[in-house]
Specification:
With 147 residues, the protein is an alpha+beta fold. It contains five helices and five strands; from the N terminus they run E-H-H-E-E-H-E-H-H-E.
């Protein structure tokens, strides 16, 4: 006798613009290959992110169950995006460490840390450790943190 094995849940990670999910790539092919209707996801995602500024990139983790139903978690925007927006630049330095593309104050870093602390994987960290991590990211992008 052969036992029927239960298919496991599948995780799909995507970076989707707030309110801009559509069945075109990257959403459509990623979900279509796993048998999920991408239009259903797009409607739910756009509904959930309509209060966020349009085109803000949001990391999204989609859990697809064996019966082709899905749930998704929307995380906060990437740290580099938030830093570049706070510094008022569109692109980081081409030679970080020697070049300075822009600058942000510690107040900006603190506000970004408060936003990032709401993510599930960062809730256990102190605000101070998240701030130091953000300062490290700022250095790697070429943004100077002004005290």
């Amino acid at each position: 006798m052969s036992k029927k094995t239960q298919a496991a849940e599948v995780l799909v990670r995507l970076l989707v613009g707030a309110g801009k999910a559509s069945p075109s790539p990257p959403v459509g092919p990623a979900l279509g290959a796993r048998g999920v209707k991408s239009m259903d996801f797009c409607k739910q995602f756009n509904d959930k992110t309509k209060h966020i500024a349009t085109d803000t990139p949001l990391p999204t983790v989609i859990t697809i169950k064996p019966d082709r139903t899905f749930t998704f978690v929307v995380k906060s925007p990437p740290t580099t995006y938030l830093l570049k927006r706070a510094a008022g630049i569109s692109k980081g330095a081409s030679k970080p460490g020697t070049e300075i593309a822009g600058s942000v104050s510690l107040k900006h870093v603190y506000e970004i840390a408060k936003l990032k602390q709401q993510d599930g994987n960062l809730k256990h960290l102190s605000l101070e450790s998240i701030c130091s991590s953000i300062i490290g990211v700022a250095k790697s992008v070429g943004i100077q943190v002004v005290h």
